[in-house]
UniProtKB/TrEMBL annotation:
Function statement: Involved in the recovery of exogenous heme iron. Extracts iron from heme while preserving the protoporphyrin ring intact.
Catalytic reaction(s) noted: heme b + 2 H(+) = protoporphyrin IX + Fe(2+)
Residues of the full protein shown: 72 to 444 of 446
Domain Dyp-type peroxidase C-terminal positions: 178-361
Main location: other
Source taxonomy: Bacteria, Bacillati, Actinomycetota, Actinomycetes, Streptosporangiales
UniProt keyword list: Heme, Iron, Lyase, Metal-binding, Oxidoreductase, Peroxidase, Signal
Name listed for the protein in its UniProt record: Deferrochelatase
Keyword Signal belongs to the record: yes
Gene source species: Nonomuraea antimicrobica
Length: 373
């Protein structure tokens, strides 16, 4: 398959049909110099333009440079194709704290997320000044890209946390079959998709009139690492599992209907006179009609970080959602899920991130974040 174009109005990796693998990293900026930060973003952009096309991170590559110098590519992706690699950069709320003269540029849409009931966030794996989302069909390619960006950033940024993911849990194009999350359910059936042009304009991309002109064509990213207590879930009856989501486990159809893409009908009642889809079903609580038509573009990944030493898998969903304004989209949806979703018995949010992903890089003279600086 041809590599995804790096240059464009929007960054790749958002509406790009979700690839199979993820390496997501958040960095803290360690330099206090604005000029060094800008220089780093320029170097990263040049490297990303090469890496996403299946080339090495620097022009000498892994073995073409002087023998006495460290190579400008780490080498583990030599011989591998681009593998659908996309690299998407985001600026965390802490980047706007005044160190770089950016406090006046913090978008209103990026107000701090409220504290949600039940969350148990671990600060060391939350937040970050910068993030890069690497998605590819080959984990070696995604990891290689992040590793080289970290190498290039040595002395200016340090890795704060990073997360590997596999088995995309969302489809973001109608050309893709809907994959399954680790609870065994199809995930991404009712998602914003590449083909929904009007909705994307209205719900995904920041507009020129939204208050932060530098973000025009960009999008806001919320990440949540959601640990699942898989073992408890696995002892829950099938009927209960299906009622929690409001969809059947086999084909993913709304309860009471036959096919995956049949519309959700919250009024429909079963033979017992109760609605097929319970009042607190996940798909009902999260549905746009419950939140003034707020949509999210979900693009999460499964993770299993080994086991936890207590005989349990350290597994769950690394939730990723893009949107035009988290205050109107992620926040109300998550607030209602945190309060009412029976799924909470089986999940725990342990990390959180909020990032402004700027518009796309236009051409070789442009760089990630030019409109901000
Ligand atoms: C729908 C699973 C967390 C927002 C769904 C569906 C499943 C699912 C199986 C139905 C299929 C589909 O339409 O995609 C999960 C699991 C979660 C989780 C296992 C946690 C481990 C969240 C969170 C949010 C969210 C944190 C947002 C705050 C949505 C939305 C829909 C949805 C907006 C579509 C509802 C509709 O319009 O029909 N989720 N989800 N989910 N979920 Fe989640």
């Amino acid at each position: 398959a041809a590599p995804y174009p790096f240059y464009g109005e929007h960054q790749a990796g958002i509406v790009t049909p979700a690839q199979d693998r993820l390496h997501f990293v958040a960095f803290d900026v360690t330099t206090g110099e604005r000029a060094e930060l800008v220089e780093l973003l320029q170097e990263w952009t040049a490297a990303a333009a090469r890496l996403t096309q299946g080339r090495e991170a620097g022009s000498f590559g892994a073995v073409g440079g002087a023998p006495e110098a460290a190579p400008d590519d780490t080498g583990e992706a030599l011989g591998l194709p681009a593998s659908g690699l996309t690299l998407t950069v985001g600026f965390g709320t802490s980047l706007f704290d005044g160190r770089f003269g950016l406090s006046g540029k913090r978008p209103a849409a990026m107000s701090d997320l409220p504290k949600f009931p039940g969350e148990q966030l671990i600060p060391e794996i939350s937040g970050g000044d910068l993030c890069v989302q690497a998605c590819a069909h080959d984990p070696q390619v995604a990891v290689h890209a992040i590793r080289n960006l970290a190498r290039i950033g040595f002395g200016k940024v340090s890795v704060r946390w990073s997360q590997l993911g596999f088995g995309r849990t969302s489809s973001t194009s109608r050309a893709q079959a809907t994959p399954r999350n680790l609870m065994g359910f199809k995930d991404g059936t009712n998602n914003l998709k590449l083909e929904d042009a009007d909705l994307l304009r209205e719900q995904l991309w920041a507009g020129a009139g939204d208050g932060s002109p530098w973000m025009t064509g960009g999008s806001y990213l919320v990440t949540r690492k959601i640990r699942m207590t898989i073992e408890t879930w696995d002892r829950t009856s099938l009927a209960e599992q299906e009622q929690i989501f409001g969809r059947d486990k086999g084909v993913g159809a709304p309860l009471g209907r036959k096919a995956e893409f049949d519309p959700l009908d919250f009024a429909a009642k079963g033979p017992d006179g109760e609605p097929y889809i319970r009042a607190d079903a996940h798909v009902r609580l999260a549905h746009p009609t419950s939140h003034g038509n707020a949509h999210l573009l979900r693009r999460g990944y499964n993770f299993v970080d080994g086991s936890d030493g207590l005989g349990r898998l350290d597994a769950g969903l690394f939730f990723i959602a893009y949107q035009r304004d988290p205050r109107r989209q992620f926040v109300p949806v998550q607030m209602s899920l945190a309060r009412k979703d029976p799924l909470n018995e089986y999940i725990k949010h342990v990390s959180s991130g909020l990032f402004a992903c700027p518009p796309g890089v236009r051409d070789a003279g442009d760089y990630w974040g030019r409109t901000l600086f």
